[in-house]
Amino acid sequence: MSQSTDATGTTRRRFTKIRAILAGGLVLGVGAAITLAVWNDSEFATGQFAAGNFGIEGSADGNTFSDHADEANAASLNFQVDADALSPDDSVYAGFAVQLVAGSDYAANVTISQDDSAAPAGTTTSYVYTTTATCNATAFASGTDTDVSMFALSAPTTPTYVCFQVTADDSLEQGATGNITWTFAAESTTTL
Fold this sequence. Notes:
The protein contains 2 helices and 7 strands, in the order H-E-E-E-E-H-E-E-E. By secondary structure, it is of the alpha+beta class. It has 2 domains: 41 residues; 136 residues, Immunoglobulin-like (Sandwich). The strands form 2 sheets. The protein has a 4-stranded antiparallel β-sheet. It is rod-shaped and about 135 Å long. The N and C termini lie far apart (101 Å).
């Protein structure tokens, strides 16, 4: 065989090998692309969220409830007629009812506090829990939990009734005026 024939044959074999390698790589690349497409998979999850409802409202008559959200908008308690003309040893009474708002999703613990810094000198105040909106000397005498400043609300629109008593003593000065403010602070507890 001549040397040029060997060179041509070697060149052809190399060319054939290169084509075979390129063809194999092309097939392998196509196969890999198909394999990747077959093995792709996805999962998705989503959640919807919304806040629950919670709130309390009060009523000075035990029937008509509304929100009294701050001291500037405090409910006016309906003390007896003589509340504006107290004399020593007088006691006057007024009730207040507190309930969870309709649609509340949580129960509540409610703490009562009072600010009597502007009260007329010579007056003291106390309160009891009663079973009805009626608040007078008889209801006060039969009330309960006089030493407990916290109560629970466990169902919407089911009120707790509080009966307040303000009593004047001998140190009450003629013409004295003032006010007492009670705060009902509610904290949510268990889901209803």
